[in-house]
């Protein structure tokens, strides 16, 4: 184990010593030390939450939030990404994405969630919020004047909240205003690969995929994260990017505060301003 650590430490130091500034004839997206992306993601979404009943813990009632609370449709959200090539072949990157939505409706049918019953005809509010933080360590596999292929390991941290509030049936004829909510943080490690092709000094194409499918302690789930885009550099260090993003996350949670599951899918275009330095 010590030999492996020493070997990777040697690689890091060697890469750091030979790392040099960009050649002006090459697209900066391949050679820049720092890459910053910030913009708007406009996804269509699918969101479902499930709670296991305390009486029958193996049976989970799932609420389709999009259908029940009419939350479907496109919704804009801010996205941010940062990458630091700290040596010739090694890099670290991070990203942030947050989306939330809520709506007050009159229920068309009874719904049961977290041992509460909200009856048809009553007014309730439902909503969700999800923040995603990603940290990724990458290693270049192949690199040339017009391309870069790399892979690595990372972790996605999901901060998830969902709630329903309104008049809930307490007993046969009595109602009371209640709020049922879940809040949890879920860490999901992942493997990822990226490819950049830059045939021109100002134009480049890129794609990226992250995947995970594993059980960790109280969580089990899967993750697919895909991105493909085209970037055009309008100034020396500034460019514009149009891309398509796809994110699907499913998880089962076995915790005291929430025994249930969720399914989330987001996909759509993203409009990004890029900086390379």
Account of the protein in words:
It is built from three helices and 14 strands. It is mostly beta strands. It has helices at 2-18, 28-31, 65-68, and strands spanning 34-41, 44-52, 60-64, 77-84, 90-106, 111-113, 116-118, 123-143, 147-169, 175-197, 203-216, 219-233, 238-254, 259-276. The chain has one domain (2-276): Lipocalin. The chain has a ten-stranded antiparallel barrel with strand order 1-4-5-8-9-10-11-12-13-14. The chain has a two-stranded antiparallel ribbon with strand order 6-7. The protein starts with a helix and ends with a strand.
CATH topology: Lipocalin
The spatial strand order of the largest sheet comes to 1-4-5-8-9-10-11-12-13-14
What string, H for helix and E for strand, traces the elements in order?
HHEEEHEEEEEEEEEEE
- Indicate the multimeric state: single chain
> What is the CATH class?
Mainly Beta
Architecture (CATH level 2) name: Beta Barrel
**What's the gyration radius in Å?**
23 Å
Residues in helix, %: under 10%
